[in-house]
Write a structure and sequence with these properties.
- It is a multi-pass membrane protein.
- It is found in: Membrane.
- Keywords: Membrane, Transmembrane, Transmembrane helix.
- It comes from Streptomyces tamarix.
- Helix 2 packs antiparallel against helix 3, helix 2 packs parallel to helix 8 and helix 2 runs parallel beside helix 14.
- This protein has one domain (27-297).
- The protein is mainly alpha-helical and 299 residues long.
- It contains 14 helices and no strands.
- It starts with a helix and ends with a helix.
């Protein structure tokens, strides 16, 4: 009996490890826009309310799991409708590489769509979990993802669902928290088409109407260049300046400004799939760095 129990435990543990690893394969390319930055905003709320260390550790861990579910739902739904495109643009993804079957991904998506709002209810952020699920359905099953405006709105409104939940996992939303959420929502909505520059070939193959394909790659690059060039003004005025003229705020402001100007240059001068992929990764890291700054600007 003891041997059977040990064997059963080992089997269960192996199954759990496999599911965690598989979920990581699905979400790993999106971690810089979801799990990492959102956890930074949870930490900012924890610091803001001076939460005791033990409670803070549990809250942050709860937030990490919430945003793991958050991005897992997105990537499952996104990759299920994008298999043919991924064969061209992202051949290492689990559904294309054979690490997961279509049927298996659909089963996991159903499970996540049940577990995620239940977990959100337990954390007191059910409305934001449901908002994210509604956006996911609009994006992946109602056609938003096939039009440039829908894609940008999905990303921008998704920032609200993400960051409002992140803050409320730890504390009630404040006007300062909303100032950050709205500023980043507008920024992401306007500039998120940078992700479509790297996928032009695959998007054209499946008939998706992204901004580069609708308005032209040259015009899109010019628009994004201007956006990244003037973006530091908004970030300084709405996010950094209200925290006061401390040296660490000024230093963060300079770093974010420098990175944004680098992106303005890259989006025009560095072209081609590998270069555009690198540019998008820098955008993700800019987003994470900005939210990491909320730890000491929202104290």
């Amino acid at each position: 009996m003891t041997t059977m129990t040990t064997g059963t435990r080992r089997t269960v543990w192996q199954a759990v490890r496999r599911e965690i690893h598989l979920s990581w394969l699905f979400i790993r390319s999106d971690r810089w826009t979801t799990v990492f930055p959102a956890t930074c905003f949870v930490l900012a709320a924890v610091v803001h309310v001076r939460m005791p260390l033990g409670e803070a550790a549990v809250t942050v861990a709860s937030g990490v799991l919430y945003f793991w579910f958050f991005v897992y739902e997105h990537t499952l739904a996104n990759q299920l409708v994008g298999v043919e495109e991924d064969r061209v643009n992202k051949p290492l993804r689990p559904l294309v590489s054979g690490r997961c079957s279509i049927r298996g991904a659909r089963t996991r998506l159903i499970a996540v769509r049940v577990l995620f709002p239940v977990y959100g209810y337990c954390l007191g952020v059910l409305e934001w979990a449901l908002m994210w699920q509604l956006l996911s359905v609009l994006q992946h099953e109602c056609g938003w993802g096939r039009h440039w405006l829908g894609r940008n709105l999905y990303a921008g409104i998704g920032v609200v669902a993400q960051l409002a939940a992140a803050w409320e996992i730890a504390a009630p939303l404040t006007p300062d928290a909303w100032r950050w959420i709205v500023t980043l929502m507008v920024t992401v909505t306007l500039l998120m088409s940078v992700q479509d520059l790297r996928d032009i070939t695959g998007d054209r193959a499946v008939g998706r109407s992204t901004m580069p394909l609708v308005f032209g790659e040259r015009n899109t690059r010019i628009f994004l260049c201007v956006g990244f060039a003037v973006g530091p003004v908004a970030i300084h005025h709405f996010l950094m300046a209200p925290a006061g003229p401390h040296w660490w705020i000024v230093a963060t402001d300079v770093v974010l400004c420098g990175l944004s100007l680098l992106l303005a240059v890259r989006v025009v001068l560095r072209r081609g799939q590998p270069a555009d992929q690198h540019t998008y990764r820098l955008v993700e890291q800019w987003y994470t760095l900005a939210l990491a700054a909320s730890l000491y600007t929202l104290r």
